UniProtKB/TrEMBL annotation:
It comes from Pycnonotus jocosus. Its cofactor is Zn(2+). The gene is Cpb1. GO terms for biological process: proteolysis. It comes from the Eukaryota. The active site is at residue 378. One of its GO terms (molecular function) is metallocarboxypeptidase activity. This is Carboxypeptidase B. Belongs to the peptidase M14 family. Its EC number is 3.4.17.2. Residues 1-15 form the signal peptide. The lineage of its organism: Eukaryota, Metazoa, Chordata, Craniata, Vertebrata. InterPro entries: CARBOXYPEPT_ZN_1, CARBOXYPEPT_ZN_2, CPB_M14_CPD, M14A-like_propep, M14A_act_pep, Peptidase_M14.
Length: 417
C-alpha cells in the first residue's frame, strides 16, 4: 500500500515533495556506555536530522540507556562510521524502513470497510464511531467534545449500561500520531465491551456499574497526516508563530510541570511543549471534558506505544505519588494478568524513573486533578518493529492489553472514592 501511495505521490511534483520516501532509511539501536558516547549522539543530532524513537529526544539520552533512532537513507553510512569510530555498540533494528512499512499491512482481512484486525484510517474510524453507537444504543453513545486544529470533530464514545450516579473511567488512544497500535486498541476495547456484554460476567459487571469514556483518537489531524504524507509524524498539525515547523507534542502540552523536564520549547522539536499549557485544541478538549466530569471520573488510562511498559505518575518529577504503594501493586498485578495470555513481559513503575522524565503528560495531569488511578500503557513491541507493528499482532496485543485494563477497572470498582 505504501509503495502505491509513493507511486501516486510521484505523479504530481507537489505531492511527491510532501511524501518522503522511506526507502533505505534505517533504525539504529545503540547503548552509550559513558558521557563521551552520549556527547557523540548529541553531536550526531546537531549535524543531521535524527528521529529519536526511544527516548523521544536526544536531551533524554543517558549512559547505559538504550536508544532507538531513525536516519535518512543517504546518512546511514555516515552514522555507522561515526558510531564505529566512537566505539558505540549498535545494531540495525530496521534495515529498510519502507519495507517495514509495507510489511505492516500483513492482515489476512481484506476489506475496504472497518476491521478490528487491521489499521483503519480516520474516515473509517469516524464512520465506525457512528455505526457502533447506532447498533448498540443501550450500551454506546457518541458525542463531540471539540474540534481539531484542522476542524475535524473530536468524537468521544460513552460505553456502559444506562444508570444514575455511575462512576467512570476515561481512556484515550492516539496522542501520538504514529503509534498506530494505540488507535487500534480503543476500537478493540469497544468491540469487546459490546460483543461480550451479557456473556462475560466481568465485562457485564463493569458496564453495569461503571461508564467508560473512550476517546478513540486524540490527535486526529496528526493521524490523518500519517496516512497521507508522513507515516512517522508524531505531533499535532497546528501552526507555530514565528516558525516554519508545525505541530506540538500533545503529551507535553498539559499543565503538569509544563515545559520543564523532557519537553522542548523549540517548535521544531518532536517534544515541543506548545506555546502554553493546553494551547492545542485537542488537549484542551480532553482537559475540559475531564474537568467537567471530575466528580465521576475515578481512573484515567492513556494508551501509547512502544516498549511494553505500564507507567504511573510521576513523569515530570522524581517525587513519588502519595499512593505509590497502591499504584505499584496495581501495575504489578495488571502486568501479570497481561503476561498470562501470550507471555508478553511488561516493566512497570513511575514514569520518570522507569523510562525517562517527561513534563506535561496527560497521566500526571489527570492525577494532579485528583484522579488517583492514572496509568499510561506503552504497548508492543520492544523495538523490533517499533511504531510499525504488523497488523497480524493487533489481535494478540489487544487481547492481552484488555486483560490488564479489566484488572485495573475491577480494582477501581472495588475501591471507589
Amino acid at each position: 500500500m505504501w509503495a502505491l501511495l509513493v507511486l501516486i505521490g510521484a505523479a504530481s511534483v507537489s505531492a511527491h515533495l510532501q511524501n518522503p520516501s522511506f526507502d533505505g532509511q534505517k533504525v539504529f539501536r545503540v547503548l552509550p556506555q559513558n558521557d563521551e558516547q552520549v556527547e557523540t549522539l548529541n553531536f550526531l543530532a546537531s549535524i543531521m536530522e535524527v528521529d529519536f524513537w526511544q527516548p523521544d529526544s536526544v536531551t533524554l539520552v543517558r549512559p547505559k540507556t538504550q536508544v532507538d533512532f531513525r536516519v535518512e537513507a543517504e546518512k546511514t553510512f555516515e552514522v555507522e562510521d561515526l558510531l564505529k569510530e566512537s566505539g558505540i555498540e549498535y545494531e540495525v533494528l530496521i534495515d529498510n524502513l519502507q519495507a517495514a512499512m509495507d510489511a505492516q499491512f500483513d492482515s489476512k482481512v481484506r476489506t475496504a470497510s472497518h476491521s478490528y484486525e487491521k489499521y483503519n484510517d480516520w474516515d473509517t474510524i469516524a464512520a465506525w464511531t457512528a455505526d457502533i453507537a447506532a447498533q448498540n444504543p443501550d450500551l454506546v453513545s457518541r458525542s463531540v467534545i471539540g474540534k481539531t486544529y484542522e476542524g475535524r470533530p473530536i468524537y468521544l464514545l460513552k460505553v456502559g449500561k444506562r444508570g444514575s450516579n455511575k462512576k467512570a473511567i476515561f481512556m484515550d488512544c492516539g496522542f501520538h500520531a504514529r503509534e498506530w497500535i494505540s488507535h487500534a486498541f480503543c476500537q478493540w476495547f469497544v468491540k469487546e465491551a459490546v460483543e461480550t456484554y451479557g456473556k462475560d460476567t466481568a465485562i457485564t459487571t463493569l458496564l453495569n456499574k461503571l461508564d467508560f469514556y473512550v476517546l478513540p483518537v486524540v490527535n486526529i489531524d496528526g493521524y490523518v497526516y500519517t496516512w497521507t504524507n508522513d507515516r512517522m509524524w508524531r505531533k499535532t498539525r497546528s501552526k507555530n508563530a514565528g516558525s516554519i515547523c508545525l505541530g506540538t507534542d500533545p503529551n507535553r502540552n498539559l499543565n503538569a510541570g509544563w515545559c520543564t523536564l523532557g519537553a522542548s520549547n523549540s517548535p521544531c522539536a518532536s517534544t515541543y511543549c506548545g506555546s502554553a499549557p493546553e494551547s492545542e485544541k485537542e488537549t484542551k478538549a480532553l482537559a475540559d471534558f475531564i474537568r467537567e466530569h471530575l466528580s465521576t471520573i475515578k481512573a484515567y488510562l492513556t494508551i501509547h506505544s512502544y516498549s511494553q511498559l505500564l507507567l504511573f505518575p510521576y513523569s515530570y518529577t522524581y517525587n513519588l505519588p502519595s499512593n505509590y504503594e497502591e499504584l505499584n501493586s496495581i501495575a504489578k498485578a495488571a502486568s501479570k494478568e497481561l503476561a498470562s495470555l501470550h507471555n508478553t513481559k511488561y516493566t512497570y513503575g513511575p514514569g520518570a524513573t522507569t523510562i525517562y522524565p517527561a513534563a506535561g503528560g496527560s497521566d500526571d495531569w489527570a492525577y494532579d486533578q485528583g484522579i488517583k488511578y492514572s496509568f499510561t500503557f506503552e504497548l508492543r513491541d520492544t523495538g523490533r518493529y517499533g511504531f510499525l507493528l504488523p497488523e497480524s499482532q493487533i489481535k494478540p496485543t489487544c487481547e492481552e492489553t484488555l486483560l490488564a485494563i479489566k484488572y485495573i477497572a475491577n480494582y477501581v470498582l472495588e475501591h471507589l472514592y
